[in-house]
Amino acid sequence: MPTRFIRYAALVVALLGSSSIAFAQETVPDTRTDRWLTNPVDDATFQTYLEFFAYNKSLPFDVVVGETTTEQGIVRQHVTYQSTQQITVTAYLYRQESPTAGSRGGIIYLHGGTGRGKDAGPGVQLGVLMARDGWTVLAIDLWHYGERNTGLLTTYTTQEKTDRLYNEPTTYLTFVTQTVKDVSRGYDYLVQERGVDANRIFLIGHSRGAVLSSIAGAAETRLAGVALLHGGHFGLLVQSHRPAACPANYVGRISPRPLLMMNTTSDTYFLPETTIRPWIRLARDPMEIHWTDTPHGFMSEEDRSTMLAWLRKR
């Protein structure tokens, strides 16, 4: 049997389960007992996941710059770029109208599970805020969200997202894999097309975007650091995912890059005792952890100031 086929088969097995039989018979992990929360995969298995996130770095970006607006010194441009073959990312790029001299740092922002994607209020507010602080911000639409709506989701209710995406292990794994590639291509775009300092690009994720950022942040080692805002391991109603899509297998591997985790004790989507604290315990230094008592997804002025202060230190 050809060596290439054996290697591919091993990779598929690692991604979907320990064997084809195990894949067919695997029981749905319970939110409180998911084995990867207590025993993440070993380094050899993790390396197979990284191979799965490989992408074509020579693919042209085919950038299209659309509507550009300027308000109170902040420029927002609608941009698209080719991420992988025949898959285009839609995004907003925020920057200062008259940036100060010197190299510029960059931020890739992943929104939460809202149908509006990058156009949702929290993402727009954070994009403007970070741009005003001197960063070049690339806020992308996740696949199936915003302008990248594929028809998989229509109402974007918690029940629909859970039934059609989060609790469909193979579909969700594909979603996770595409997001990691989108982030890596976003990094390349900021450096090659926007002149951003390659050593000062951070990844920030909010809610579902935080879950995905914990995975992309571990897989894309060129990132300078990662901030996870109101994320967790399992969200409300979510019960199943494959090991290659499990944030518990990644969050500890963001180290030695700095990590910021901001969570709320009042979270009713990511339950603190069963899905947040066990996940946080897997994170490694250098990290900062901040708790608030705001509702899930809501960042107060103090929270935003804490995030900016963390970025400035880098």
Question: What features would you describe in this structure?
Answer:
This protein is an alpha/beta fold and 314 residues long. It has one domain: Alpha/Beta hydrolase fold, catalytic domain (Rossmann fold, 3-Layer(aba) Sandwich). Helices cover 37% and strands 20% of the residues. It is built from ten helices and nine strands. It has helices spanning 3-16, 20-25, 35-38, 43-52, 121-132, 158-166, 169-194, 208-219, 272-280, 301-313; strands at residues 64-71, 74-84, 87-96, 106-110, 136-140, 201-206, 225-229, 259-264, 287-292. The protein has a nine-stranded mixed β-sheet with strand order 1-2-3-5-4-6-7-8-9, with helices on both faces. A hairpin with a 2-residue loop joins strand 2 (74-84) and strand 3. Helix 7 packs across helix 8. The chain is globular, with a radius of gyration of 19 Å.
SSE class:
alpha/beta
How would you describe the oligomerization state of the chains in this entry? Answer: single chain
* Global geometry: globular
Tell me the name of the CATH homologous superfamily.
Answer: Alpha/Beta hydrolase fold, catalytic domain
Mean pLDDT: 90
Number of separate helices = 10
In order across it, which strands form the biggest sheet?
A: 1-2-3-5-4-6-7-8-9
Strand count, sense and barrel status of the largest sheet are:
9 strands, mixed
Radius of gyration: 19 Å
Q: Class, according to the CATH hierarchy? A: Alpha Beta
Order of helices and strands: HHHHEEEEHEHHEHEEHEH
Which consecutive residue ranges, at least 5 long each, have pLDDT under 50? 1-32
CATH-defined topology? Rossmann fold
**Which second-level CATH architecture applies?**
3-Layer(aba) Sandwich
